[in-house]
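C4-dicarboxylate ABC transporter substrate-binding protein
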Amino acid sequence: MKTQVVMAVAFASTLAVANPVVAQDRAGWPDNFTVGTASQGGTYFAYGAGWANFVAESLGVSGGAEITGGPMQNMALVHTGDLKFGLTTMGPARESMEGNSPIAPGMKMDNVCAMFPMYETPFSVTALTSSGITSISDIPDGATIGFGPAGSTSDTYFPRMMETLGVNFERRNGSWSDLGTQLQDGLIDVVAFAAGIPIPAVSQLEVQTDVNIIGMTDAEAKKVVDNFPVSEFIIPANTYQSLEKESRVVSMWNFAMANCDVPESLVYEITKLTMENNERMVSIHKAAQFSIPENYTKNKVLPWHKGAARWFNENGYTIEQSNIK
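Predicted structure tokens:
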């Protein structure tokens, strides 16, 4: 899959950077780095591009974000070393590590290590108000549903969830921005989003037209939780203008990852920078309010990079040696 690179190059200097980080050991550090994100219009791209800029500015290494197909492709790119860093969701991470990735069937992508927790990805549905669709059960038989980029978390799990809930649909893939435009133009009936909130494409949509942001009933949420590696999640009412009350959905955790061969000192400094500057991270994207050290326990899939594990263990959190690679 061809990818578009969006580089945001930054160099640290005493004038440009307020609090530059000076690492004691830079042996083996690359001259530049790229973070695998996802499509434009989604949270991964906004979060990943902002985070890459923050790291580049603070550590004095040029870096930026790359548009990719999302978690599955990021796992492949980081495992092979084509990218040093990437963002992934725990479900696709597990499938990739076990050799069940549709990108490279049979390849166990086990040279990927966790760095830090990002946020939960809620699975939610958006339709135009004019469609009359106000619940999942309202989705008409044979409706065209946009599931995001091929191989994304949404595309991997949401179609299966819909089938479990008895929805019969036609599948459509594309970037979140493109699917939002198709929904607005009446070319598709529903978009099934899986992204950190607020999702840029949804926020843009509700500025331009009236939309319904659709949650799950208690019974629907329970059925999905019983069948998939997700947990229940509540989208707060103040997340979107279109929400009048909180919305019950399901969610899956996201983590930043690194190729396990990236120098320990670099991953240590990046983890330290990210975990100790949450206010700056939240200024990049509101979903980063959950990018806090306490959520390190949400990783039950990836081994920890030794550089990240060192920071957590030095700061009162416990990562056992058996979980470090």
